[in-house]
Design brief:
Transferase(Phosphotransferase), domain 1, 25 strands, disordered C terminus, six-stranded mixed beta sheet, 31% helix, Phosphorylase Kinase, domain 1, 3 domains, 16 helices, Leucine-rich repeat, LRR (right-handed beta-alpha superhelix), single chain, alpha/beta
């Protein structure tokens, strides 16, 4: 009775507070989670317990409009921790200023949807989220002086209001995203002191007044339109000092100079007189010459059209005669007609047609483009000779063999400067790629896949009938080896490291599925294709290689690679259909490996336990059974709540029906929340932890 009375009293107090509170409950929850992510520093009014009214009680740094929080300004408050996982609950937040603190980890995917100004400079943040693409209201972004890595997300297509972008003093790589061309209001752009490469032509038509690109690895030429910017700094790059090459033939003339303040063009005094002449119908010599050139071009084009028309009419009787003779064999007539039409189309088409790779939202890898001697396709990767790779692999010696798959063998290579690489020697028999032109188009496509958790293609070889792909090398091996090959004493994967690996692999698939356009389906996602670096960060390999498998053998190859190892989704086993949702299923299987330490298919176990998914799925929501499934190598050192949430993500990914599986962006968000809550539980009481609290002693950097 006493407990019941206390419960009712607490409930009444909560209801009473809710009634009198000013601030919307969603904003209150968002601020409390944010406060907990900062390790609960001393801030006037802030608290993470029950109650609290940020707008009514004037919490430090919080400004409101009515019941909604619209501004958070806490620069230089020595805030630690992270940005939490619930900023998206602050639905009306317009200004976020947390600069000059000690915030770490990546900027979260969950961001305020109506944010206009974001100041996060001088922290220790490590990554920019692709969810920026939804924040169209942003006018100012300052994330300078952090530890940002990877490429600048290509998400700025709709940022028509952005006037300040500062990503300087970070470790960003790759080229400037092509979507920068859509920044029609940008005035200040600072990207100095990074490792950015390629050219800066995408900035040529922007209304910039302050541009700093110093101390990067840019090359090419500084566009002439940027030379007139009042405050341009471009030193410390590899820009060419020779005259820029002329524009290609028939290229439209460059746009007129941008208008200065007040709407006046920076022309000479005679500009007004020339405009008056134009209004009165007068023609300058330049305009007259332009008209003459246009008339000449029109005449030439008309002549070419006439010639083509006459040739086509001349060839038509020959085609009709061949078609008439084909009626002698009615059973193959349709195929014969199609063949003859294709023959005529081939004669009329240009002699060489360069295959173009499908576009990606992310920019191409910015190396010095190399043209192969037998191709016109430009490939943004290093070209190696067969002799180079033979020397680096000791003639592809057996002791350098790292692994073998359906597409070929992988060897460890070491260049003369000591750089280790992984060389995949492709087996041409099972590939759709036949000509060098096709191979280089394929390489050009996969070389543009750039993400922190995707293994980078650094080069290729296409000579003497050999086709090889050169990747970066990771000496910790694969996740499969770490879980299933090494003995118990060699396994060093803590619970935190397993969550970190799952999150990194999820972000790699999210990038392939939801950032690349068209989406890239991996088709061979498994623990053996997840490479680990010295920090135990995951790197997904073989991305984009599914395109090499011939259509006729797709099902056979994939069944060999996936089905026999237990990663294959049910819909593929039944119909041969493979989609991004099939990748999600395979990801769930890998998470089960991380949870249990078991192989997806293990014939050495009892019959009911041979299939990991079939054995584990019914137990994922039973907390007692779940604790017995955990990898014995963890020795019971893990947080119970984190384990349960990890199992929830697995359950959603291995749903039998593809439509019920979540997109990878949702999986990423779930794992981020799991990580954040586990971090908060380090400061909680021992009853919230399963096993030993030593499980939480792993450093936060593990995430």
């Amino acid at each position: 009775m006493a407990r019941s009375a206390l419960f009712r009293l607490a409930l009444l107090m909560q209801v009473a507070w809710t009634v009198r509170a000013i601030t919307e409950i969603g904003d209150v929850n968002g601020l409390k989670i944010l406060y907990g992510s900062w390790n609960s520093p001393r801030l006037s009014g802030w608290n993470s317990g029950p109650g609290g009214d940020p707008c009514g009680e004037s919490w430090q740094g919080v400004l409101c409009t009515g019941p909604r929080v619209t501004s958070i300004k806490l620069p230089g408050q020595n805030l630690g921790g992270s940005l939490g996982y619930a900023l998206d609950q602050l639905r009306n937040l317009k200004i976020l200023d947390l600069s000059n603190n000690q915030l770490s980890q990546a900027i979260p995917y969950q961001l305020p949807p109506q944010l206009q100004e974001m100041y996060l400079s001088n922290n220790q943040l490590t990554g920019l989220p692709y969810s920026l693409k939804d924040l169209w209201s942003l006018t100012k972004i300052d994330v300078s002086h952090n530890q940002l890595i990877g490429t600048i997300p290509d998400v700025f297509q709709n940022f028509s209001n952005l006037n300040l972008l500062d990503v300087s003093f970070n470790q960003l790589t790759g080229s400037l995203p092509s979507s920068f061309a859509g920044l029609i209001s940008i005035s200040v752009m600072h990207v100095q002191n990074n490792k950015l490469s390629g050219d800066i032509n995408v900035l040529s038509d922007l209304p910039l007044a302050d541009l700093n690109v110093e101390n990067n690895q840019f090359n090419g030429w500084v566009p002439s339109s940027l030379r007139s910017i009042p405050n341009l700094r471009d030193g410390g790059n590899n820009f060419s000092t020779s005259p820029a090459p002329p524009p290609p033939p028939f290229t439209p003339p460059p746009p007129p100079p941008r208008a200065q303040a007040g709407g006046k063009s920076p022309g000479t005094k005679s500009s007004s007189r020339q405009s008056k002449e134009a209004e009165s119908g007068g023609l300058s010599q330049g305009k007259m010459a332009g008209i003459i050139v246009a008339l000449v071009l029109a005449a030439v084009i008309a002549g070419l059209v006439a010639v083509c028309y006459m040739r086509k009419r001349k060839r038509k009787p020959d085609l009709e005669k061949k078609m008439e003779s084909s009626w002698l064999t009615p059973h193959n007539a349709p195929a014969k007609v199609k063949e003859l039409k294709m023959e005529q189309k081939t004669r009329l088409s240009p002699p060489e047609k360069v295959l173009k790779p499908p576009p990606l939202k992310t920019p191409a890898a910015e190396r010095s483009p190399i043209k192969h001697k037998n191709s016109k396709a430009s490939v943004a990767a290093t070209s190696y000779s067969v002799a180079d790779l033979q020397a680096a692999t000791n003639s592809f010696a057996q002791e350098n063999l790292l692994g073998e798959g359906s597409l070929g063998r992988v060897y460890r290579a070491e260049l003369q400067n000591g750089t280790p690489l992984a060389v995949k020697k492709l087996d041409a028999s099972g590939s759709t790629v036949q000509t060098n032109e096709e191979f280089l188009a394929f390489v050009s496509t996969i070389a543009r896949l750039r993400h922190t958790n995707v293994t980078e293609l650094v080069g290729y070889c296409a000579e003497h009938g050999q086709r090889l792909l050169v990747y970066e090398y990771f000496n910790r091996g694969t996740l499969h080896e770490m879980l299933h090959v090494l003995d118990e004493t060699s396994k060093r994967l803590s619970w935190n490291q397993r969550v970190k690996i799952a999150l990194g692999a999820a972000r790699a698939l999210e990038y392939l599925h939801e950032v690349c356009s068209p989406a890239v389906v991996h088709r061979n996602f498994k623990s053996a294709n997840i490479l680990l670096d010295d920090d135990m960060s995951p790197h997904l390999t073989d991305c984009g290689l599914a395109a090499l498998s011939s259509t006729s053998s797709d099902r056979q190859v994939a069944a060999q690679m996936l089905g026999s190892f237990g990663y294959s989704a049910p819909e593929f086993a039944m119909s041969g259909v493979y989609t991004v949702k099939s990748d999600v299923y395979s990801f769930g299987v890998v998470m089960l490996e991380l949870l249990t330490g078991r192989k997806p298919l293990d014939s050495s176990r009892a019959r009911s336990e041979q299939s990991l998914v079939r054995w584990a799925t019914p137990q994922l929501h039973d907390i007692d059974a779940l604790s017995k499934m955990v990898d014995p190598a963890l020795k019971g050192i893990y947080p119970a709540k984190s384990l349960s949430r990890f199992a929830d993500v697995i359950s959603s990914c291995v749903q039998p029906e593809p439509e019920f599986r979540p997109p990878m962006s949702e999986v990423v968000q779930s794992l981020v929340r799991l990580m954040q809550r586990a971090s908060l539980s380090k400061r909680s009481s021992g009853d919230e932890l399963g096993g030993s609290q030593r499980s939480m002693h792993d450093p936060p950097s593990d995430y």
